[in-house]
Amino acid sequence: MIKIIALQALQSIFANKLRTVLTTLGIVIGIASVTIMITAGDGVKMLILNQLQGAGSNIIRVAPGNMSSGGIGLPETLKIRDYDMIKKQVTRAAHITPQLFEQKQITYGREGGNFAFFGTTNDFFDSFNPVFEDGRPFNEADIRAAANVAVIGPKVKEKIFPNENPVGKRIKIENTTLTVIGYTKPIGGIFGLFLDQAVNVPITTSEQVLGNRDWLNALLISAKTKDDVVPIKEQVTTILRKNHRLQPDDKDDFSITTQENTLNTINTIFSIITLLVSAVAGISLVVGGIGIMNIMYVTVTERTREIGLRKALGAKRNIILWQFLIESIILTLVGAGIGLSIAYAVSVIVNLIYNMNITLSVSAMIFAVPISSFFGIFFGYFPARQAALKDPIEALRYE
Fold it and tell me: Domain tally for the chain?
């Protein structure tokens, strides 16, 4: 019986192709938009997570100020003596890297640009293991001698040395001249900021540009294993609170960020984005559902005599109800299918143009079918019920 009703519903739908297309348009737009946005969000999220789990996967970042209290606090709260104490006591760390940082204008002849300028140690390169396109990192001897040498990232090379090898060339930062001793291949991702778009110099050399500081912008601690991350975080917290003479009730005047913190933040952000996108798409689906309901009311009115004839021949109310309800469900499922097809086509085009690997979100596809069926049942029920309750005599008289 259901098969016969479904076939009759399909015949009715395909008898009015233009009406069917216009009716399903709202559902198509809603399903396509939510699928595209969820797929794009999942793709970006996985890209960021993969980058975090690659370079710097065991990195712990210590920064001055307490970000949870609504600001970064005073930048002088992370002292060089804190670094000395942490390096001496934290034995689980593979590398501990101090960082001084400012945005600076870098020039070479007529070429120049504004880039991140980092003063650091050779532990930095051991932490991130960058691949050098040419040249070498600076070493302990360079640090002890406060050598005027620099390692630049690929973005800096592209901007300042677009058509030549920068190794051996001299760049200028304010009144300081530095010799480029190496440049790296791109590492990308979150940690690309420290290499791809940066000029790194020995921390002793950076004093010529940044002044003689007794405080740091950050400490990067590379744990030996992932299991060492939490113990290191706890030990560093204890050391800094003791060094800074904080009372038990005092808030930390520093911030410690681990990969887990970053992952949790990213998951929270993308969950909120997905929720907002789904809400917007839901509005489109409601509009589409109302459109289907209106068309189904028109269909019921047009087929009043047919309904009366069926009832006169013995068709029960539930048969009439299911005929129109199945028509409504089919319309929404067709709209969902077209919407998913559009979303798939968009993902393929984006992959081809931008050389990405975005795949259609399984969660979005699973979401599309039951949601479409729900809208089909909810908005189709009222017209179907109206058809089922029609009096057969009055329906046969209808013109």
Answer: 2
The residue with tokens 């030990």 is: 235
- The pair phi, psi for residue 219, each rounded to 5°, is -120, 130
- Model confidence over 305-323: pLDDT tens digits? 888 887 888 888 888 888 8
- For the cut 80, the answer to whether the pLDDT of residue 358 exceeds it is no
Burial of 151 (0-12, 13-18, 19+ CB in 10 A): buried
Are residue 248 and residue 267 in the same domain, yes or no?
no
Residue 357 one-letter amino acid: N
* pLDDT, the chain, mean: 83
The DSSP call for residue 75 is G
pLDDT in tens, 79-117: 989 999 999 999 999 999 999 989 999 999 888 899 999
Beta-bridged to residue 60, according to DSSP, are: 221
* C-beta separation of 371 from 332 below 8 A: no
Q: Which two tokens stand for residue 214?
A: 């007794």
Same domain flag for 46 and 127: no
Q: What would the pLDDT profile of 215-248 be if each residue is shown by its tens digit?
A: 999 999 999 888 898 999 999 999 999 999 999 8
Plot region of 189 (φ>0 → left; ψ -120 to 50 → alpha; else → beta): left
Determine contact, residues 291/374, Cβ cutoff 8 Å: no
Helices and strands in the chain: count of H runs, count of E runs: 14, 10
- Phi, psi of 277, rounded to the nearest 5 degrees: -65, -40
Which structure tokens are listed for 283?
């509005």
Q: In whole angstroms, give the CA distance from residue 249 to residue 266.
A: 30
Pair of tokens at residue 160:
């300042």
Whether 132 and 242 map to the same domain: the answer is: yes
Among candidate residues 206, 368, 182, the one with its CA nearest the CA of residue 281 = 368
Query: Residue 354: is it exposed, middle or buried by C-beta count within 10 angstroms (0-12/13-18/19+)?
Result: exposed
The reply to whether 200 and 279 lie within a common domain is: no
Residue 298 belongs to what domain range? Answer: 2-51+263-397
pLDDT at 368 over 80: no
